[in-house]
Design brief:
It is a single chain. The chain is an alpha+beta fold. It has two domains: about 55 residues, no CATH class; about 100 residues, Rossmann fold (3-Layer(aba) Sandwich), CATH 3.40.50. The chain is about 25% helix and about 25% strand. The protein contains three helices and eight strands, in the order ββββββαααββ. Strands 3-4-5 form a three-stranded antiparallel sheet, with no helix packed on it. It has a three-stranded antiparallel sheet with strand order 6-7-8, with no helix packed on it. A two-stranded antiparallel ribbon has the order 1-2. The protein is flat. It starts with 11 loop residues before the first strand and ends in a 10-residue tail after the last strand. The N terminus is likely disordered.
Amino acid sequence: MSQRVEAGYQVFVRDGGEEVGAVREVRPAGRPEIVIYFENYGEQLVPVTAVRSVHDAMLNPPFGESVPGMAKIVEFHRKNHPSDVHDTNYVRGWSYVMVWSEGLRRADQAKALIGEGIKAALETLKDFDVGGLAAPVTYTAADHRPTTKVSLYQIQGGKIVKLGDQEQPRKKEWLGL
């Protein structure tokens, strides 16, 4: 980073949007930095003294969190690559596969396993349950946002702690159309 990061709340700009990066690692043995991961930007070292409070809004829970769908992910992890480290992007991938698999299954049942048929099948998803790996997913012909709900987390005592959920109404003017 070329700029000095001051203590306090920090907002980072990424892909034209504002977001607080997710703390990836706190360096052990008193090293004076933390690693913050920014999606599509990578990891950056930030001095610990610059961080007073870290909050994040995440669509997917951290790897290993106690939600129904996590058991299958953890089992797969232990069986196939137990030494790997996973984060919410890994969980997000699982939730994506669950949604797309259901869309493909529905399109196939409708004998419409082509682009428009898959799109139409995905648009029938209403509160589709991904086992807590994300909020229930809804697509409509007019609104392709999978959800308007995020979970809010904070770093407390070196652990990621869920504070609660925040849901926004599905307002047409927010679609950007």
